[in-house]
């Protein structure tokens, strides 16, 4: 059967039985129905795989991949390689999205013939929500401008007023740009995985669009997620991320001071 999906949505899953059904319902009920949904179960030991199977049995758009645990980046890279659509988006399995999210992002990326569109998001913690969105429309169309975006991106870590998220999940990308940058991703990294990808990908985009007054992704604070855990190997992980980012900067002729600023801010945040 010929693939007719316009968007591939990759959902990495690991021990999120408490959140998973809400996440998957928000994806399968998208107003844009011509989507490919790739769920990657990364060796869950709870009932997450059972939940995924029940959804896959009822929705033919779902492709379920069950693999040994390899970490978050390993999971979503597996999903990317199994995807087929021209455009690709990501949803973390402990979050959920508005039902019109991918229809809106797709309309914007087609309208402006963009390589990536960036949306706002809604941060949820203990039933309290904070909307993080952009005040105005912005479009950047050359490499110099893209490096200015990287400057904002890499210095936003401790800037609470900057709504530019470092994550994958509030963006829609041209898939081929991600594919061409997989070589720069270090799957041993377990801190700052999204930064590793976006630092490489955004530098290669010819057109980046920021959508104003728009927020469709619900980032849910999960106290047991990988991102919110203290890891005794934090120093090692930060060093791995630093090496990966420096390699990207040197190959793509990006100011390495941006890497130093970001890593310095990350260390400061971990210490505190």
Structure notes:
The chain is an alpha/beta fold. It is 39% helix and 23% strand. The protein is built from nine helices and ten strands. The protein has helices spanning 20-28, 48-58, 72-82, 101-111, 143-154, 175-179, 193-203, 234-252, 256-271; strands spanning 7-13, 35-42, 62-67, 87-90, 96-97, 116-125, 128-132, 138-140, 171-174, 208-220. The relative contact order is 0.16.
Give a brief outline of the structure:
With 272 residues, this protein is of the alpha/beta class. The protein contains nine helices and ten strands.
Low-confidence stretches: none
Main beta sheet: strand number and arrangement?
10 strands, mixed
Helix content class? 25-40%
Q: Structural class of the helix and strand makeup? A: alpha/beta
Cα gyration radius (Å): 18 Å
Number of domains: 1
Number of helices: 9
Report the order of strands and helices.
EHEHEHEEHEEEHEHHEHH
């Amino acid at each position: 059967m010929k693939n007719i999906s316009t968007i591939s949505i990759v959902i990495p899953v690991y021990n999120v039985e408490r959140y998973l059904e809400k996440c998957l319902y928000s994806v399968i009920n998208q107003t844009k129905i011509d989507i490919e949904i790739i769920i990657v179960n990364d060796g869950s030991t709870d009932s997450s795989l059972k939940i995924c199977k029940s959804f896959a049995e009822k929705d033919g758009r779902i492709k379920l991949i069950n693999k040994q645990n390899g970490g978050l980046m390993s999971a979503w890279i597996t999903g990317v390689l199994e995807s087929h659509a021209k455009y690709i988006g990501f949803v973390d399995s402990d979050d959920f999205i508005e039902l019109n999210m991918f229809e809106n992002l797709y309309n914007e990326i087609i309208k402006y013939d963009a390589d990536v569109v960036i949306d706002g998001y809604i941060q949820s913690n203990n039933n309290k929500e904070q909307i993080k969105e952009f005040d105005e429309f912005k479009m950047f169309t050359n490499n110099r401008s893209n490096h200015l975006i990287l400057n904002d991106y890499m210095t936003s870590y401790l800037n609470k007023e900057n709504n530019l998220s470092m994550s994958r999940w509030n963006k829609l990308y041209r898939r081929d740009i991600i594919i061409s940058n997989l070589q720069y991703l270090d799957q041993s990294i377990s801190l700052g995985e999204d930064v590793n990808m976006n630092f490489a990908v955004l530098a290669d985009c010819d057109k980046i669009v920021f959508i104003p007054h728009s927020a469709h992704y619900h980032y849910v604070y999960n106290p047991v997620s990988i991102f919110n855990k203290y890891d005794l190997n934090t120093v090692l992980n930060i060093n791995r991320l630093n090496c990966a980012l420096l390699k990207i900067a040197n190959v793509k002729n990006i100011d390495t001071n941006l890497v130093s600023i970001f890593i310095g801010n990350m260390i400061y945040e971990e210490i505190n």
